Fold this protein.
Amino acid sequence: MSLSDRYEQDLSAYLDGELDAAAAAELERRLEESPQLRERLAQLRAADAALAGAPASEPSAELFSQIRARIAAEQSPRRRRSAAKPNRIRRPFFGAAAAVAAAAVAALLLWPNPPGESPREIARVEPGTAARPRIEPR
């Protein structure tokens, strides 16, 4: 059985004392049942111990200035202009495409029938007759 991400997170939280009493009790019950969980807990404890002995280091001031310089370079006006260019190209294209589509729809609706064909009759109303509403009981 492989450890799920949930158990990995629970084991880490257990080591850090972040689990509530019910979750800690449930994990301890699982630890009693699973040698694999106990082994993983031992590995995490060893990693915590190794990291606790490592010296803490502060990043240099030079690192922050390098990061700021890279951010400024990426936001230069030249890059912003080149990134905006595709939008300028797309706008006229979409406008032209919409105009062509509108013209095609108008042509289909307004174009007369070809010679020799008559429009199909859908319904016929005889002159002098009017539709009278009629309600019939069931």
User: Anything to note?
Assistant: The mean pLDDT is 79. The chain has five helices and no strands.
